[in-house]
Amino acid sequence: MKQKQIDRRTLLSGGLSLAAAASLCNSAHAEDRPKPIVPGLEPGPARLTPLELRLERPEGGVRSLSAWRGAPFILHVWATWCGPCKIELPQLDAFMKKLGDDSPIVPVAMSSHGPDEVAAFLKNLNLTHIDPWTADWHEFRTWLGVSELSFPGSYLIDPEGRLRAAIEDETDWGAPDAVAQFRKVIAALKE
């Protein structure tokens, strides 16, 4: 059997091709990574009218999103059927635990089943810091002025109830500096 000899140019060319392909793969994965809180949620100019959204929870509990007015907060939208949400929710739950009981994050399941099913979903995943709020995704979508919603999504709402920033993708709640980033974003709207 005759062996074929590889010259240095062929070897170098092949190596460079592999390096270029690896670089492209890494940049594609970078786009798939969760977005950092800053700069994604840094406040921009106020947009849209104040958000009015009816939230429901098990046992018939109803609350208006306007109950959070007077202080900035994050409206985090997710769905029980959303794969990226299932990955992100445990990070968000741990993040909310670090913030404590007065966490200015309002997670709301949209385009999901009713509040009882959402509560069972959260219990199955042992997510104890996320309340089983649900809302009508059509109403939220209309307010945003979009035909489709991206899940998960984090929306920075100012004290008057207006949209100031949004990450319509996963957020990196587990980053080492996530709490400091979050406090910076909230403080910017309290000034």
UniProtKB/TrEMBL annotation:
<dbReference type="GO" id="GO:0015036">
    <property type="term" value="F:disulfide oxidoreductase activity"/>
</dbReference>
<dbReference type="InterPro" id="IPR013766">
    <property type="entry name" value="Thioredoxin_domain"/>
</dbReference>
<dbReference type="InterPro" id="IPR017937">
    <property type="entry name" value="Thioredoxin_CS"/>
</dbReference>
<dbReference type="InterPro" id="IPR000866">
    <property type="entry name" value="AhpC/TSA"/>
</dbReference>
<dbReference type="InterPro" id="IPR050553">
    <property type="entry name" value="Thioredoxin_ResA/DsbE_sf"/>
</dbReference>
<keyword id="KW-0732">Signal</keyword>
<dbReference type="InterPro" id="IPR006311">
    <property type="entry name" value="TAT_signal"/>
</dbReference>
<feature type="domain" description="Thioredoxin">
    <location>
        <begin position="42"/>
        <end position="191"/>
    </location>
</feature>
<feature type="signal peptide">
    <location>
        <begin position="1"/>
        <end position="30"/>
    </location>
</feature>
<dbReference type="GO" id="GO:0016209">
    <property type="term" value="F:antioxidant activity"/>
</dbReference>
<dbReference type="InterPro" id="IPR036249">
    <property type="entry name" value="Thioredoxin-like_sf"/>
</dbReference>
<keyword id="KW-0676">Redox-active center</keyword>
<protein>
    <submittedName>
        <fullName>TlpA family protein disulfide reductase</fullName>
    </submittedName>
</protein>
<dbReference type="Pfam" id="PF00578">
    <property type="entry name" value="AhpC-TSA"/>
</dbReference>
